[in-house]
Amino acid sequence: MNPCTNKVPGKFLKIRSLLLSCYFVNFVFTNLFLSLEEVMRDYFDVRTDDLLLWKQLIEGDKNAYSTLFVKYYDDLYAYSLKLTKVEDLSHDIIQELFVNLWITRHKLKPVSNLKPYLLRCVKNLTIDYSRKSKTIERVNQNIVSEEIIFSQEDFRISNEETAAQSAKVLALLNSLPIRVREAIYLRYFTGLDYSEIANVMEINVQTAQNFVHRGIRQMKEVYVVFLSIVPYSI
């Protein structure tokens, strides 16, 4: 065998192919696990930061309180708006949540995972508003039916072709059952994992998985496009 040429005798072809295959598999899995390691490291860093900020909030640290407000406001507002369909009301709900957190900080208990906890608080506050507030009686029928309606503004669209395809994605998303829609929103538009979705929706983890998988099955024709335009393609 001449190392200076690409001509390899037949008896070496299988050996070379096997070696290349092994190298490729090793390369893919090494990089895959490195990527997963980075994701998990970032995830636990966020959790650790949140635990510290929460502890500081309970102790009365105004900087920690402000940091949590800024960090989670957009996600909490977006979720509330999906439930209420009313911008001013959604802003009021988030503000009330954080006012309540500060006032009752001495009674707060440790929270292992802050984001789903806050989202669930938003949902509960939104439900309370729909039941109790006389100022929203005229729109009460549209408040917190848990019916999330998706729109083009929810997508990250990079070109005209994707924009055209997103219309079909949008139609399919909004045709999903209400609870399936909410699970899809929490998974792909808020970035929660299944246990976190279960926490927010007050269901078990298996049901959360079933809801998401059911939605994906119904969108199988546009799944690749769907993943390319959602904020969290996990």
Unreliable stretches covering 5 or more consecutive residues: 1-44
Give the CA-based shape: elongated
H/E topology pattern: HHHHHHHHH
Number of helices: 9
Overall mean pLDDT score? 79
Biggest β-sheet strands, sense, barrel: none
Helix content: over 70%
Beta-strand content estimate: under 5%
Distance linking N and C termini: 47 Å
User: Which structural class fits the helix and strand makeup?
Assistant: mainly alpha
Rg computed from alpha carbons, rounded to a whole number of angstroms: 24 Å
Q: How many runs of DSSP E, i.e. beta strands? A: 0
Structural write-up:
The longest helix has 49 residues, at 10-58. This protein has helices spanning 10-58, 62-84, 87-103, 114-132, 160-175, 178-188, 194-201, 205-218, 223-229. α4 runs parallel beside α7, α6 (178-188) crosses α8 (205-218) and α7 (194-201) crosses α8 (205-218). The chain is an all-alpha fold and 234 residues long. The two termini are 47 Å apart. It is 70% helix and 0% strand. The protein contains nine helices and no strands.
